[in-house]
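Checklist before submission:
- one chain only
- standard amino acids only
- sequence pasted in full

Submission:
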Amino acid sequence: GDTRPGVLFMIGLMFEVHLSRSQVLAVVKTLSLRLLLCCVMALAIYFLLPFEAAVKQVLVLVCFSPVSAMGPVFTDRLHLDKGLAGVINSVSIPISVLILTGILLFWPPVA
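Returned file contents:
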């Protein structure tokens, strides 16, 4: 069966708008670190791996894909801050969409 609606519903339930200053800083720090690591991995893939250009492009796009929708679920199972995990997940989606769009606009597909 298709479980995406259930996962999206759970993320919606975990999304909290009321964030303290420390939580906002945690979100910014987490997403900034993730973006930095994605850039390092993408550069390593592009310059170091001996694959053809099309494979490199797909791997770079995968690096910048959004945070997994299962992150908040696993965070809840570990009894950690599921609201913060939901916010990180929800904020990472539009950021990833913008980055992926930019990559595809400036790095045309390889045939």
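Reviewer check: The mean pLDDT is 86.
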